[in-house]
Amino acid sequence: MTPEESITAISAGEDSHRQFKQDITNADALAAEMAAFANSEGGTIFIGVADDGTVPGLTLKDVGRLNQLISNSASYHVKSPLNVRTENVRMEKDRIVIVLTVPKGIDKPYFDKNGVIWIKTGADKRRVNTKEELCRLFQSADQFHADELPTKAGTDRIDRLRLRMFLEKKYGIQYPESDDDLLRILQNMNLATDSGKLNLAGVLLFAENPEWIKPEFIVKGVCYPGNDVHISSYHDMEDFSGTLPEIFEKALSFIMRNLHKIQAGRGINAPGIPEVPEIVFEELLVNALIHRDYFISAPVRIFIFDNRIEIISPGNLPKNLTVAKIKTGNSNIRNPVLTSFAAKGLLPYRGLGSGIKRAVEEWPDIDFTDDREGGLFKVIIHRKYSRER
């Protein structure tokens, strides 16, 4: 990095990827800063720069001391050790700024010496305080996923008819005769834990009345008059529960019955064509059910207005995904067990990364909002025909 490049970066101020330190004397404090960057998206620490952006710089003696401190801190004060990079940039008056680059971690979560997990929040850092946040860090490193979370439900909660039909159709095998054989099959299918309980995927796909076990993972639908949310006025409202395939069918029917039907040159007795193709909602609903964040205890919501339909999923886009990337077919698997069973025919799933792309190809007038502050992902399907009731 040249002095000019350093000055340009410093002039932009501190943010979630850039931090200033006039000097560092405590290895533990530096370890906490590096762990926060590694647990987030990585970043750069400019040492020799004051909080206000002025550059007092460092002496050569300071540089020797600090490089040793950085090495010790990254190697012995962070668990797991970090591979960081330093660059000494000579500024005016022979003063030096150390540019310390911390990469995004691949072995999350990273702890400081006291066992505290830090993440970046804007220009600051904070402790990870909740189980959900900790699980999400493991998920981001592909070490753990929400659909593998154990539940309190045993194998006696399985919908035997539903599982029997799936086993015969997909694998050509009969329903097991003993409880031990049933548990072994469920464990082999990654639907039950080693302790004998159903995991979340097992509940959502094959449990009888899964809403009794996990009541938060349903879909709520409301059709409002006009273009705004009303407190008490609505045309249609329903909560959809059951297994994910059942929820999908019910939610899709709710949307389709509240759309206009267009004659499109057909005879008076011919059924009308939906104003928005049904496949658009198939793709978007499957995406909402399979790729939502199940670490967040909240339902998927469907709002139908005169000028648009909104599908709101708990959780923002995972990892490095952006709206632009998902529209071109990029994706990350947030819930691999659910995804694998959707691909086995339980839902109309046509392949990883293809759903959003196909929906936009069928109906380009769709907006996507990745609300990272609110922790949700919103799809807005714009309608071309106003409702008249």
From TrEMBL:
Native species: Methanoplanus endosymbiosus
Schlafen AlbA-2 domain: residues covered: 14-129
Chain coiled-coil ranges: none
Matching PANTHER family: GLPR-RELATED TRANSCRIPTIONAL REPRESSOR, SCHLAFEN ALBA-2 DOMAIN-CONTAINING PROTEIN
Name this protein carries in UniProt: DNA binding domain-containing protein
A Pfam match: SLFN_AlbA_2
Domain of life of the native organism: Archaea
